[in-house]
Write a structure and sequence with these properties.
The protein is 28% helix and 20% strand. The protein is an alpha+beta fold. The termini are far apart.
Length: 419
């Protein structure tokens, strides 16, 4: 695609191109994919409406992206990509939420310095681009960690019975990726690391995200007080809400993950369904925050590739963007830890082969079309096929939000969400 030549305006001066480069590397030339659905329209709308140079905007946002090459850190063989029937390849993207616990940022009771990844989410996009699953992995899961290599080349030996999030702490995203692939047999196409502070800026850029709070949240020690009801959260309140453990969910990380799923689903709903795409100011602010807060692999770390390939996902309905937690249970050796159930293998195998999740596996689903207790759930109806809500109402076929699977009242209440 050729880039339009900037035309000077009598009223708006064309800014001098200023490129910020952080950790940039030349990407390998191969097919890549993305979920960044709004980028193409942004460049066009902002170029036409505001008089800004498309070239300048592209180079500025592209320069915000941080690109990481982890090829030299990967140890041993990786799983093969399974060939499936479909117009395109299925995509598997591992999303890791990066955070520190310095000073006032420590709201969830964790201690110690350094960077951690306490949120890990697999995003799976089907080959027909008609369904998307987000599968959360509890950070307290006890797993076997493979051998890893740090950025400076130091080797970290394999170890059994380790907490999931220790891998990131020891050797960064590469170790978490190796751990995921070794345990699931799924070949990852891409990875994304999201900075939590940047996540807060993304929420602010779209004018806040709607949530439903079943009862007052009083954690004034960390500057958090929210009255019960449906409201939009912005700023530090939004960030604290998705990170909070002890003032909500009774200290449960499972509850916090379910709350994060509902918040992300509501944010997806806001970006797609509201005036975000039609308002250049909001769209630019959202992309500015998003590009500044993302670290991506080489093949995904290019704005034009993000935009071009994001267009592929325009057909996925909000009811087919579904979030689940990998099936788990309390570790019999430690009540403060978790282990995966046998059904976890079934989930990973179905996603590896690009098969829809069955009703049994779609327990406690939250979809982007049905946010618990918010206006997006007003038109929802109870499943009429004889199945309970927690069992789900479908296997991924397109349909209305009322037919989409939904989380049980018990799971929502345990997560501090409205039922």
């Amino acid at each position: 695609m050729s880039t339009p030549t900037p035309t000077p305006s009598a009223e708006v001066a064309t800014p001098e191109p200023r490129v910020t480069r952080r950790g940039k590397r030349r990407a390998k030339r191969r097919r890549t994919h993305t979920v960044a659905k709004v980028l193409v329209s942004t460049l066009v709308v902002l170029g036409l409406v505001t008089g800004l140079s498309v070239t300048y905007l592209y180079r500025h946002l592209n320069g915000n992206l941080t690109v990481m090459d982890i090829d030299d850190q990967l140890v041993g063989d990786r799983p093969d990509k399974v060939e499936v029937t479909g117009p395109q390849e299925p995509l598997n993207v591992l999303v890791m939420g990066s955070d520190t616990r310095e000073g006032a940022n420590n709201i969830d009771g964790l201690t110690g310095g350094g960077e951690r990844s306490d949120t890990t989410l697999l995003l799976h996009f089907s080959a027909d681009r008609e369904r998307a699953y987000g599968v959360s992995i509890p950070r307290d899961s006890m797993v076997d960690r493979p051998e890893c290599r740090t950025e400076d080349g130091t080797t970290t030996p394999a170890a059994s019975y380790q907490m999931w999030n220790v891998a990131y702490q020891l050797a960064g995203p590469a170790c978490t990726i190796q751990q995921f692939e070794a345990l699931t047999g799924i070949r990852l196409d891409h990875f994304v690391v999201v900075d939590f502070t940047g996540f807060q800026d993304m929420v602010d850029a779209v004018g806040g995200v709607e949530v439903c709070i079943p009862e007052d949240i009083d954690d004034r020690a960390h500057g958090m007080y929210l009255e019960a009801g449906t409201r939009k959260l912005e700023g530090i309140q939004a960030l604290n809400y998705v990170r909070q453990r002890y003032a909500l969910s009774g200290g449960s990380d499972i509850g916090r993950m379910k709350r994060q799923q509902a918040f992300i689903a509501s944010m997806v709903n806001t970006v797609v369904s509201s005036n975000t795409l039609a308002r250049p100011d909001r769209l630019l602010g959202f992309l500015e925050a998003a590009t500044e807060s993302l670290t991506l692999d080489e093949d995904l770390g290019n704005l034009w590739e993000l935009a071009k390939l994001g267009y592929e996902f325009r057909g996925i309905g909000l009811d087919n963007v579904q979030f689940i937690t990998i099936p788990n249970k309390v570790d019999p050796n430690d009540p403060n830890r978790l282990v995966w159930k046998r059904q976890a293998d079934v989930v990973w195998n179905r996603l590896k082969n690009d098969e829809p999740l069955t009703k049994r596996l779609q327990t406690d689903v939250i979809s982007a079309a049905r946010i618990p207790g918010t206006s997006s759930d007003e038109a929802s109806e109870a499943p009429d096929d004889g199945e309970t809500a927690s069992q789900g109402g479908g296997s991924g076929a397109k349909g209305s939000g009322g037919n989409a699977p939904t989380a049980s009242d018990e799971a929502l209440a345990a997560a501090g969400l409205c039922t």
